[in-house]
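Researcher: Excuse me, tokens okay?
***
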Amino acid sequence: MTPQRLDATFAALADPTRRAILARLALGEASVTELAEPFAISQPAISKHLKVLERAGLISIGSDAQRRPRRLEPEPLAEANQWLERYREFWEASFLRLDDLLDEMKAIRGPTAPPADASSSKKSRTTIHRSTTNKRGEKE
């Protein structure tokens, strides 16, 4: 995977019309006319979107007698997914570390700790705040 190809893939995917075209092509090959049907834009505008998708390598042009159907090319999407996967793994590892930290904090607090639901947690903080400051904001 080259950085230029990844850039072209994400640039092509940035447009909702092009994503919709790819979703349609995931169902099977289609002609330009078939691809243009669900959109309220001109066929030349659809052709411009198809050119962007072709340059990114996301679609290719087949040949079926006089038809020139477009088909989805999965490799650039797989490469983009592979690139994103590294970040998913990063976030998953971060959440696992957070889970471990929360488990440690629960173990330190022990069984007398207040319930963990949000409403009682907020109430506890409010109670602590009231017991440590007076109306003028001075510590008691």
Notes: Confidence is low (pLDDT under 50) at residues 121-140. Residues 27 and 87 are 28 Å apart (CA to CA). Strands lie at 59-61, 70-72.
